[in-house]
Design brief:
Layout (H helix, E strand, L loop, with lengths): L3 H20 L4 H8 E8 L6 E2 L3 H8 L8 E13 L2 E12 L2 E13 L5 E10 L1
Length: 128
């Protein structure tokens, strides 16, 4: 049976993949909002800092073709357990759309909400 830390690592990685599936989808804002803590802060390259305080800006900045890729891959994934209800995951991301490539490092901090679901607290990407 996996330890509690192993289960947290698996769940946070599953949620991070769900985040990237949302980010690369045709309509990212609703899916990203669903994954987010109400006080989420998102830091994407060459964009303003995004929060849910300004939903109009949030929706406008994340609408397609924002990060619209055909596929993505997470490498060098590391998950740090902060406590039983918080974790941070770091990785390198490689994504493609046709002949366009996107390479960056990423980091997301997740916290477990009262309903037991893991939610994004902060997300950050840095271009390589």
């Amino acid at each position: 049976m996996p330890t509690i830390h192993e289960r947290i690592r698996e769940e946070v990685l599953r949620k991070e993949r769900a985040l990237w599936t949302a980010i690369t989808s045709a309509d990212p804002p609703p899916q990203i909002k669903k994954l987010s803590n109400p006080e989420v802060v998102l830091l994407f390259p060459k964009m303003p800092i995004l929060t849910l305080e300004d939903e109009e800006q949030f929706d406008e900045c994340l609408k397609a073709p924002f990060h619209r890729f055909d596929g993505f891959q997470l490498d060098d994934v590391r998950t740090i357990i902060i406590d039983l209800m918080a974790a941070s995951i770091t990785y390198k991301v490689y994504a493609v759309r046709g002949d366009q490539e996107y390479r960056a490092t990423g980091s997301t901090t997740w916290s477990q909400a009262a309903d037991g679901e893991w939610r994004i607290v902060t997300h950050h990407e840095t271009l390589l």
